[in-house]
Input
Amino acid sequence: MNKVPVEKIRNLALLGHQDTGKTSFLEAVMLETKVTNRLGRVDDGNSNLDFIPEEIERRISVRSKLVAAEWDGYRMHFVDAPGYDDFVADRMGAIAAVETALLFASSDADLEPGTERAWRALELLNKPRIIIVNKMDREHADFDRVVQQLRQRLSHNVVPLLLPIGHGTAFKGVVDVVEGKAWMLAKGSAPKEGAVPDDMAAAVAQAREELMNAAAETSDELVEKFLESGELSQEEFHMGLSRGIATGSVYPVVAACGGEGLGVATILDVVRRFAPSPADVGEVTGTLPGGSDPVSRAAVASAPLAALAFGALSEANVGDYVYVRVFSGSMSQGMDVVNSTNGDSERIGPVFLLNGKQRVDHEAIGAGEIGAAVKLKHTHISNTLCDRGSPIVLPFADIPEPLAHIAIKTRAKGDEDKLSNGLGRLHEEDVGFRVQVNPETHQTILMAQGDTHVAVLLAKLKRKFGVEVDTEPPRTPYRETIRGKSEERYRHKKQTGGRGQFGEVNLLLEPLPRGGGFEFVNAVVGGVIPTKFIPAVEKGVREAMSDGPMAGFPVVDVKVTVNDGKFHAVDSSEAAFKMAAAQAFKAAFPKAKPVLLEPIYKVVVRVPEEYMGDVMGDMSSRRGRIQGMGQEGPYQVVRAEVPLASLYEYATVLRSLTQGRAAHERDFSHYEEVPREIADTIIAEHKAAAQAQS
Output
């Protein structure tokens, strides 16, 4: 590709709810800009972008894809991010890598929750937005209704820039309200200038006035002129509108039917004219490694290298790549750089631009460009690459905590190492999931963003690494404790010929406050148990506590005092006293009013008002206790305490109850007693399982 100045680069993330037509729009962009000579279609399984087997099977995107296109002397780098919230890590990486988002909404549906969540993510990182109301050829397309919902739910600064001429099968063009021109659209043909329809004159005039007012408000000078004359020159209009988009004081809305290529060229012109370049944004600010001191880099090739790894792709028929956004300097093959995030050195291999799975030879990824480097040894998503003498760590977006937890185990014995290796490799390209081995339940827990995320990960494990797994609900990490006191003496005595075993202890058990943990007290006097055996007594108690007498769960919040005992000068040993202490504890525990404890989580649910009844009813069925309610923007916020055992599959149920419009967060709070009837069931299940194994 031709080299272009930074001022003529546009970096764009395609975001929005699933099935709003993002990938189909980008397929049309590739055809329009002659990146490809055919229009790939997701539904037909021949997409240039959704080529991973899991994508073809499900007709959805599961990984971000890159496209580099040239348009009217400009370079445009597109990052097509998945619409499903399950793949939110790719969305956040895409946002971190670009200056501008193309945010998609369907013309024939209410504003989708995935588009709303993408908006909130863009708000956090203060990114400019151009909104595309797509699928204008649909039967029930209604541009005005979507614009109204955008204003109500997202921002009153939403203003149309390309108005549709006709809806549904009558969609035949757009009106550019900035230029006052109509563009007639036909499949397979370039836009043709035409007359603005008479019945649209009022709507065009209103949109132009709103846009010009927004443009004027970007500077005192323009405000003054606009108030005096009620008009701006076209040059001033363009300048003010560009500034307004860059600063977030205006969010232009454009109409299109991307799947058929209608309106794609006019949108590319809008991007060329008004979207900010890396040079417009100016310096990127990061920190020095290991600290918080700010440091900046200018978007110029002469500056030291500062590049962000924001995504990855690993497929057998494509290759292993790390997606890289170069903010300053230049990255080329053979360079020795440092990963300032972890301190490791890297030698850069071949670098490319990518168009889906097709790589484009590129001598160097320069300032402002987005490309790919052949898999790097020590660099992963969110890492910064830079010159060793000019260190900087670039900011990366926060990835939401995964809320879908499932226990997995290999179907074939001996596949444990393959499973571990496979999950590690998958995490190199998808940082949205985590894996944890629970030492208490001995389960491997896969923590993902949702059911679809889990299904895709398991499908990849099988396809790429030959590992099949079975799944089961994660076991709840209950605890056991006591509410009363008890005392028990136990003598361990064994004679088998020769030296025997002897140890006798007397233990007093008392409850500690919740969260008190474990306290061991040596109250032995008179040397009835020699001091050298006291550590063995404590060890025996701790081992007994690790496998509680009620249901095999760890014992907590207990004070154990050893206050008496006996020893034998020949037969006593550490092993004997450890055994005596363990048995004394097990005998005393049932007499101290034992109870089962369960983990309680603080849960915060953000939900639209219309779904509050369903959410509250479901929360009650989960033994949730409401701690408070409030309002945050258009959402009701419910704060509750809920037992962990009741939160299994809650993320999925919440999405179903609210059509995907609600979201929740959870954090561990404390342990508290399990209701008696539930505790009895848990204990009975434990005993039945123990008997089945014996």
Q: What stands out?
A: The chain has five domains: 6-281, 284-386, 404-472, 479-592, 596-677.
